[in-house]
Amino acid sequence: MTPLGNLACSKPLLARCARGLVVVATLITTMSGVAASRADARSVAFLGVDISNYKEDIEPTTEAEKGRAAKLTELFTTLVREKTPLAIVPVPDAVQARIDAGQPMGKCGACERDYGRELNADVVAWASVEKVSNLIFYMNVFMTETSTGNVLFYRNVNFRNNTDESWLSAMRFIVENYLVPAVTAEAPTGPKTKLALFDFELDDFTAGGPIAGESPAETRRLELVTEKARRILAGTGRYEIIDPHQSGKEAVRTHWLRNCNGCEADICRELGAEQSFLAFFRKISVLDQYLEFQIRDCRTGEMVRRMQTEIRNGTDDTWVRAMEWLIQNRLLPGQAS
Asked: Which domain range does residue 66 map to?
């Protein structure tokens, strides 16, 4: 882990530094620099900060922590207004009250897009603070496009200490070091890679797992991770996502591509894609799991990228975090796995 004051880049649920690029895309299409006119800038509505307290039952969220969440909202809007060409859309108190009373953004069936449309905002943003203990915290900042739901930006850091200063420092670090450069950078240019992104699969090595098959919760979790991965990669501006369900192949329908000796390359070639994207979770036990990405050249069948990360515990959050981490820190930067 590489500390930065009381901040450190964070790998999902692991204590290793999460280096790499943020997920960015069409957010910057209409503005090539800070000098872009605000009259032409895209608008963003910040929908607030959710606190996810892992020990809520024994250490309830305090009023001081709720007050810090409000301060994070104020800091985010101030920094974005001052340092980027984005136009801030105010969120009326009545709308914010409905947001706060509902499910967290990002876990509410795309309700954030509904709020974006209601507020007439091109982009919606929100943050979450995960409280693991009174010492260990994670800060996450998200942006999605209202019209498409594409993820335009995502970054997280972990930080130490439960104080106003530590919470605000984490938000400032993400905005100034990742969001501002992303917004003011040049938009991606050149043709997009046609990517056949197949449904995520589960390779279960637990006792009885191969016979019992996926649980309903695991099936739903695989669908969740697949959909988020497609949105993130489409949002980078680098890929055109090809729908693999156009194929009638049995291995696609039954989610058995991981065992078909590279047949996904043939399938993606038939679909008109340039690369295939196969991902699967390997479950050794409840606490010992891995996520692997395999990317092949559809024309030659050659494996061009292969990357993996470990996971502790099988939940929606850990699977999603693992997927996001691999995309951020292995796939997009082009680092060797």
From this structure: 3-184
